[in-house]
Amino acid sequence: MQILVLSLGKDKKDYLEIGVTDYLKRINRFVPIKHINIVPPQYSNDTPIEKRITMEASLVIKHIKKEDQLIILDEKGKLLSSPALSDWINKQMSAGSRKLIFLIGGAYGILPALKEQAYLQWSLSPLVFPHRIATLMVVEQIYRAMSIINNEKYHHE
Fold first, then answer.
1. Domains, in order of start, for the chain
2. Cα separation values, 56 from 30, 37, 90, 93, Å
3. In whole angstroms, what is the distance from residue 37 CA to residue 1 CA?
4. Predicted confidence (pLDDT) per residue in 66-87, tens digit
């Protein structure tokens, strides 16, 4: 199985990127993982939000194949504990899933048609986070899940 983390937003290299890179290296011991940050197109101030979301979705769709399992990050999605996420990922691995794609949307949200395609809508919290912070949280939780699956001591219950 492979994991792809897609995030939409302005790509700023900073301390958060250092954390994301560190967790990606740690996860790669267990399963191949990649992070792609998609920089949204430039919009004029009068570009309607629906058009912005559609334009962003067209950039996202290029990275998704029909057989991939799309996981959308959404504050209204399903709340999962770390052990529950670990169980869910383990089940996907056991079922022979080829690729899990975690999608962190942009400032205006995610196209409803993409949400409908999602295998899971997952919420980190009812709070809304900037895409860079959400990306760090997602890769940390994936690492925690892989540590639980592999009986490592990172997660303390």
1. 2-149 (3.40.1280.10)
2. 31, 12, 30, 29
3. 21
4. 999 999 999 999 999 999 999 9
